Amino acid sequence: MTDRDRRSGSSRQPVRTDGGATEGPRVEDPEAELLAAGALEEASSGDLQVTSTFNEAWQAEIQDVKADEDANRQELVDVMGIDSDGEVELEAVNDAFRITIDGALIGSLESEAAFYADLAAARLLEDRLQAWHELPVADRSRLLKGLRLFLEICPECGTEVVFDTKTVESCCGSYQVAAVDCDGCGSRLFESAPIDEDAMD
Prior knowledge:
Helix content is 36%, strand content 24%. With 201 residues, the protein is of the alpha+beta class. The chain is globular.
């Protein structure tokens, strides 16, 4: 198991709607679901990696998502199962990519590049996971975030990404997270929950 496998998790709120997190089947093991969907496979080293077939389709969908930003608003509602007829807005704000409906924040991602990756992957998982349409929004977000951990190329600029630990500053102090960042455009593609440094000693 790699550092990426051990430290996966989220310090940010997933895309969600009221009631959506308690309906439908629960995803207990995102990696097992992604393996069953043919998105991940075990490498010869024993670590997990994105399958070549899925990665090729994923990269093609990312380019398609980037080509039609206006259509992404409605598709986000449809693919993620968000129950709303309101106006969806996607906006980059400081170090996050916010998703609002009628001005109300319903979720945020690490960056616009992370949004491209998630929407493209959602298109693919919709066809590959039989239970996708029964999954609550929070579980769909867990699967997409877990898959994003294995990105090797930035969806925004095409530069190789780097997995490392980073220090995050907040109003309550600083803490360490595991993060996947792009060396080219600086987009953060993945950020874990705060690392328990005492548990690592």
